[in-house]
Amino acid sequence: MKKISDSTIRRMSKYYRSLDQLIDKRVETVSSDTLAEMDGITSAQVRKDLSFFGTFGKRGFGYNTKALKKQIENILGLYRTWNVAIVGAGNIGRALTDYAEFKKQGFIIRLIMDRDKSKIGQQVRGLNIEDFNKVNDLVKDEQIDIAIIAVPADAAQAVADKLVTAGIKAILNFAPRSLKVPPDVTVKYENMAVEMEALSYFLSKKK
Amino acid sequence: MKKISDSTIRRMSKYYRSLDQLIDKRVETVSSDTLAEMDGITSAQVRKDLSFFGTFGKRGFGYNTKALKKQIENILGLYRTWNVAIVGAGNIGRALTDYAEFKKQGFIIRLIMDRDKSKIGQQVRGLNIEDFNKVNDLVKDEQIDIAIIAVPADAAQAVADKLVTAGIKAILNFAPRSLKVPPDVTVKYENMAVEMEALSYFLSKKK
DNA sequence: ATATATGTGTGAATTTTTTGACAATGACGA
DNA sequence: TCGTCATTGTCAAAAAATTCACACATATAT
Ligand SMILES: NC(=O)c1ccc[n+]([C@@H]2O[C@H](COP(=O)([O-])OP(=O)(O)OC[C@H]3O[C@@H](n4cnc5c(N)ncnc54)[C@H](O)[C@@H]3O)[C@@H](O)[C@H]2O)c1
Ligand SMILES: NC(=O)c1ccc[n+]([C@@H]2O[C@H](COP(=O)([O-])OP(=O)(O)OC[C@H]3O[C@@H](n4cnc5c(N)ncnc54)[C@H](O)[C@@H]3O)[C@@H](O)[C@H]2O)c1
User: Fold this and answer.
1) What one-character-per-residue DSSP string does chain A give?
2) A82-194 belongs to which homologous superfamily?
3) B186–A202: do the CB atoms touch at under 8 Å?
4) In this structure, which of A173, B70, B71, B124 has its CB flanked by the most CB atoms within 10 Å?
């Protein structure tokens, strides 16, 4: 299969959510134009993105919302559930554990770990905070697919290394630090500081 | 000034954080190679990015870490503080209010608003939760520069509209929904679902 | 002083991404 | 059944982003 760009995947994920919205409103058919409108891009982009994976529309008609949603579900692997572990039971770690939407999307938080003795054993939304030292066993027992790093930046690389050793292949990192991982492991970033600073740039520029 | 791409700005923000790390370790000089290494990109990219804004290095020598940090500070507008308002005193809104790092970076949370009567008046880290209906006055009184949207997706566009009316020009949106705003307003997104689904795609592809 | 080594700054080349344009197709009404 | 209309799928063009590659500036050693 040809390599699909990251931007295309991101947009697929957005189409998926837009389709959900439409289906909620009982809309049965949608054009690339409408989909583009909803996501603030061009219709050519929508059609191009979809064309990497197949032909899902009918000419002169558009796309069936439910059918297209199902297709994207297959493409993105959302037809199944994924087991998620959170490392770091601080502010962000707890907020995420509490995030119900998450489960609805098929990402099930099975495990939350910390290294702080005073936190281990406490409950967060029915989950026991576990000892991160036992990460190898825990990841295996709970069959974790995806790990979320929510520890301070200084600890992030060390945590990532241990997750990789434990066999994790997919990481979402909330700490504002680039991680080095082997090529068969993917890391995505959620870096708020970057977005805030982009806003700062924008605001100072216009003066 | 020539239009600078968003990706360049994002990377500038990363260089800024990497420089911080180096300065912490008492490193006085850094090459584009090292900086690139730290952020997982190429050295040509680093030099190219910086070249959009000026010439900050010495040939054969590299960049002075402190001087370059200061330069980026000026470029991104981080030499000053920005007043931030949060809309939505739920899980994410509260976690953000509690996020100390934020203030250290010059983003000062002055205001947290909600529309839920039972929440208005409660305290979050010394801040009163205010009535979002009073957004116009509040934004003016507190001289808010940046608003963070942390309400359910369905409410996000309506909230954005009101923020725009109140004079806000920069928004960070945590709700998984594209926002329509006038051209003089910037919106950045923090969309976790997109990142998680990209990981899902990656995991299902390799099987 | 001079030579040498290092690493920047930058046009040019390359690659990637986005946009444009339109022939082809299917729905639908007469 | 045929004609009209809407909208896809895709090839080609344009634009944007990244990488290459090297002349040149500067630090340092001798
Ligand atoms: N709180 C926010 O709103 C927010 C927003 C954006 C980014 N972040 C980032 O997310 C990360 C976590 O932020 P937070 O506010 O939740 O921090 P926090 O201090 O509240 O929590 C961090 C947790 O990680 C644990 N920890 C530290 N080192 C560890 C290790 N080596 N192994 C296992 N656990 C360890 C700590 O015991 C603590 O419970 C930080 O990198 C922060 O920059 C936070
Ligand atoms: N919690 C998370 O970890 C998380 C992660 C990623 C994204 N998000 C997104 O962030 C947003 C907020 O999530 P949350 O978990 O904090 O939700 P939440 O339900 O805990 O909080 C939402 C808050 O917004 C308020 N609100 C609703 N409509 C409003 C309106 N029109 N005006 C003003 N206030 C209004 C509610 O009263 C509530 O206090 C959602 O869009 C969610 O998808 C949350």
Assistant:
1) -PPPPHHHHHHHHHHHHHHHHHHHTT--EE-HHHHHHHHTS-HHHHHHHHHTT----BTTTBEEHHHHHHHHHHHHTTTS-EEEEEE--SHHHHHHHT-HHHHHTTEEEEEEEES-TTTTT-EETTEEEEEGGGHHHHHHHTT--EEEE-S-HHHHHHHHHHHHHTT--EEEE-SSS-----TT-EEEE--HHHHHHHHHHHHHHH-
2) NAD(P)-binding Rossmann-like Domain (3.40.50.720)
3) yes
4) A173
